[in-house]
Automatic annotation (TrEMBL):
InterPro entries: Cro/C1-type_HTH (IPR001387), Lambda_DNA-bd_dom_sf (IPR010982)
Transmembrane segment boundaries: none
Species, as recorded: Halobacillus salinus
Pfam families: HTH_3 (PF01381)
Keywords: DNA-binding
Name this polypeptide is given: Transcriptional regulator
Top-level division of the source organism's lineage: Bacteria
SMART domains linked: HTH_XRE
Gene Ontology molecular function, alphabetical: DNA binding
Domain HTH cro/C1-type: start-end pairs: 13-67
Gene3D superfamilies for this protein: lambda repressor-like DNA-binding domains (1.10.260.40)
Length: 78
């Protein structure tokens, strides 16, 4: 059985996209994914691959840690 560590990744894709005055479709085209992928990522329902995370950060010319934040969960089930 797969262990759930409770870790999470949040993102600021929506904030960066709005500041750039872009639609979800425009951003999706620039980073090579569908509009739906951007939509679910902004809603927090999708964690992108590392490659996609770096593409997005590179597109906005920021560090990947400025867009994506890793939060370690409580691992008290050991």
């Amino acid at each position: 059985m797969k262990k759930d560590f409770g870790d999470s990744i949040s993102n600021k894709v929506y904030e960066y996209r709005v500041l750039a005055r872009m639609s979800q479709q425009e951003l999706a085209k620039q980073v090579g994914v569908s509009k739906q992928t951007i939509f679910v990522m902004e809603k927090g329902n999708y964690v992108p691959s590392m490659l996609l995370a770096f593409r997005i950060a590179d597109f906005f010319d920021v560090d990947v840690n400025d867009v994506f934040t890793y939060s370690k969960g409580d691992d008290q089930n050991e």
